[in-house]
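> tool_call: predict_assembly(chains=three)
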Amino acid sequence: MDELIAVLREQRPDIDFATQKNLVDDEVLDSFDIISIIALISEHFGVTIPPEEIIPENFNSAESLHELIVSLLDE
Amino acid sequence: MKRLCICVATIAFVICFLSAQRLLAPKYMESLHEGALTAEYYDDEKDNDVLFIGDCEVYENFSPAELWKAYGITSYIRGGPQQLIWQSYYLLLDALRYETPDVVVFNVLAMKYDAPQSEAYNRLNLDGMRLSRAKLGAILASMTPEETVLSYIFPIFRYHDRWNALTSEDLKYFAASESVSHSGYYMRNDVKPANIVPEGPKLADYRFGENSYKYLDKITALCESKGIDLLLVKAPTIYPHWYPQWDEQIRDYADEHRLRFVNFLERAEEAGIDFDTDTYDGGLHLNRRGAEKLTDFLGKLLAEDYGLEDRRTDAAVAAIWREKTRDYERMAEAQLRELDEYGEIRTFTY
Amino acid sequence: MYFTSSAFVLFLVVVLTGYYVSPGRFRPVWLLFANSFFCVASGWAGTACVAATCLTTWYAGKRMDRLSKSLAARLADADLVSSEAKALRRRTKEQKRLWLLLGVCVNVGILAVTKYSGFFAQNLNAMARVLGLSFTASGFDFALTLGISFYTFKALSYMTDLYRGKKTEAAGSLVQVALFVSFFPELVQGPISRYCDLSPGLFAGRIPCRDEFCAGVQRILFGFFKKLVVADRLLPAVVILTKSPDEFKGAYVLLTMWFYAVVLFADFTGGIDIAVGVAKLFGIDVTENFNRPFYSKSIAEYWRRWHITMGAWFKDYLFYPLSASSAMLKLIKPSKRIFGKGVGVRIPVYIVTTVLWFTTGLWHGASWNFIVWGLTNGAIIIVSQELSPLYKRFHARFAFSETPVYGAFQIVRTFCLMSFIRVFDIYAGVGVTLGAYASVFADFGREGFAARSVLDLGLSVSDCVVVALGVCVMISAGLWTRRAAYKGTSLTARVCLCFLLFLATTVFGCYGIGYDAKQFIYNRF
């Protein structure tokens, strides 16, 4: 989780990922950020997020993103 | 409370809508007076011995006031510009809701049109009709392809564009119109002799159309069912051209249905019509002098052959027609005065 | 059948009456019948295309659904080893992908043949001429009145969602899929709804409550107002301006841009208002397509607020899948090496962005105008993305960037920029548009303006006043809907508003004899 937040900070240092819960719905992250985050995650965790998982619910908070990564690693 | 508010809003809306519609519809008071003819019928006395139907060849060529003065016959002209035969039929049907005359006179020139002609003329003839089944029938029979029934029922959908063309006329006649006709007769006192009479162009087919016959049949049947004598006439105006082939067809039809057909073109001389003095537009329409002559001639025929009584002894009817003839004469004087003074007519309403 | 024709109004009244009197479970079938009638009234060629899309979409969906079900059954009953289950999952996924591909190919094929074959042939011929080959190709020439781009995209999203198994889990029956694809309010110009969003309302056969009904009527009337009073009154002037670009230069080009912005906005949002309002009368909620787009402060934001369903479609089904694909992710490393750490990461995304905007342009119309227009949008978005650190520093440095005045400046800037590039749509070609751009700077001034008169545009003073008032109404409506309060508007106020809109549109609209029922500008796309 901490590692993830560090990765997210790399893309957007101005955001407090630990507390924000509506990153996509409140338009804090735009589509460029999301793609960059996906690229960073693939780089750091070796996980490719499939297109069907690129939905607001999975990117709204660091927690949900963490859960997604964990479930993808399990598969 | 809520319901009340909505009711008030609805009433306000209906008032606004109808006012806008009235404001935007053409009034036909200062120009194109022929458009006002159809509506005037409803305000008139409906106790007529004779009803005329047809196009300009009736409302410019016969004078009900003269018919009264000379023969004591009451009459009304439900004519309109380029009134097509189905419009004549439905206007007759409409009039029969209010009265049943003894004789209906139909001018047969309209037989030449078998299909809807022009949107503008449809409007001039039909907009003045009160909403009824007859009106609906007239609309459906008359519509050109680009027209809609809705715009006849609510003319605002047709005339909404006039918001930037409104004139003082629209305000002046917003609440009430004036009369432009004398029992449907559209008066003209000016003179323009018929010098050159153009030849009628050759036609490919001289037969009247199926649709025209269909409505002529309907008119015949309607009159028969109501016990009305139908008299077919052709007014003595020399243009548009009346072809012998047409004349023959009407004669055949009249014979077949035991109707009377009078072609006044052949009897213009007998009636004393002089095309140098009795027409105001070179032979298309008669002026007042010509119309009175023609009416005298027709009146004799109506009184003698159709047995229409002289009602001048009936005090109630006479009172009404006294006023009518007074208006008629006043306008005639006014027009003559204007012709003297300005060389043109300015008074068309009273 | 255009939305603003009296035939459509009559059709709507009949369909609504039938819908309200029939028992609940027949209502969806009745709607499908109405859709079919709507299609047929627009021509048989279009109907055939819609029918083909419905059938193929339904069948592909059904096959994918069957595969998912059998997978679920086998995963449930046997005690599989996890590696076996994994293999089974993968195999099912591959089979499903086959059906998806088939469905997508057929539908994109129909779209390509009907809409793009002419354009393709034209370019092929031009290329042959350049290469000196004696060779001519000819495309099919279909005059399609129904919005094939719109319903094809709906069908594609349905199949993709079903394949992904995320938003749409169970396939619809033929009636359901056909009802979704051919839903008549959306058929001509969208919105591009998703199956998961539209289907609950579509299949419920619900009668709306009184307030909803009134809101629907209000929406429809406002759509008519925008389209008839503003768009159709101003459109002839835009046509005149763009038909003779050699005569209307300089300041007239700016006039063209602003006029076209107003016309397109009034026409397109008006059409969508009618579509949304009509759906509301059937108790169906349709995804909104606009969120006051002219209040956007940047181009990227504008595209999140203008034609939302199309933007979302491209994002979900093209942009994300492409940029998150392993190929693109693999590209990051070499690109980083070449361009450095900062830009290097973003280069693959920019490639995808370019592809995205190329496609968006092409989607709007089969001509280079639209492609150049799309690519210009993409370029601006990429540039502003690259400049965003600069902007941020600028905003942090100067306090006035937080003030409303600066916000207003951003809104005006975005509006002007969008108007500037949007005229690619309407000038005859790319060259003509570029010429017009040049003349804004070259011929700006009294001479350019005096070359022709404003009176040549066919607008009377009263037309201008009506358009100006109409624009004011649209702006105030925008400000009004921004406040949440309007949702709680009382029924009485809504009824009054409906009456006012009806009267204003009736009197000041351009319709009836003397006016063609002009096509919605957007329905050719």
